Amino acid sequence: MGLFRKRARPGQLRPATSSDERDLEQFARNHRGVEAFIEPRTTVTETTMLLVADTGEWTRRRVTGPENAHALARKLGIPAYDAGLVGYPQRMRDWNARKAREQRGEA
């Protein structure tokens, strides 16, 4: 039934799943001006793909390697960048700051 998920052990790589790709596709379809930022694999997480909309709203999911991330971006018709080379867009930082202010009850 899949009620209980297998938990990753310390030091165990967390792989991408098909639901990760579906989530990325859904985000790209439901937002405007989406760009992809591909983040390198770490010791505990597979390569990740960060999608950022023109509003700064974003989502991050695991993908099976940078080649597959670029292929997915091409399939979605969005530009893809190496996050380690270009960094993250200012609109994402602005969106995060706005959300943090909202959570604190500030205007």
Structure write-up:
The protein has 107 residues and is an alpha+beta fold. The protein has one domain. It is 39% helix and 17% strand. It contains four helices and four strands; from the N terminus they run H-E-E-E-H-E-H-H. A four-stranded mixed β-sheet has the order 3-2-1-4. The chain is globular, with a radius of gyration of 15 Å. The N terminus is likely disordered.
Provide the domain count. 1
Note the run of SSEs as H and E: HEEEHEHH
Strand content: 15-25%
Which structural class should the secondary elements be placed in?
alpha+beta
N-to-C span: 45 Å
> How many DSSP helices?
4
Radius of gyration: 15 Å
What ranges have pLDDT less than 50 throughout 5 or more consecutive residues? Answer: 1-5
The order of strands across the largest sheet is: 3-2-1-4
The helix content, as a percent range, equals: 25-40%
DSSP summary, beta strand count: 4
List the helices and strands and how they pair.
Layout: H1 18-30, E1 35-39, E2 48-52, E3 58-62, H2 66-76, E4 80-82, H3 83-86, H4 90-103
Parallel strand pairs: 1-4
Antiparallel strand pairs: 1-2, 2-3
Jot down its keywords.
alpha+beta; globular; about 110 residues; four-stranded mixed beta sheet; about 15% strand; disordered N terminus
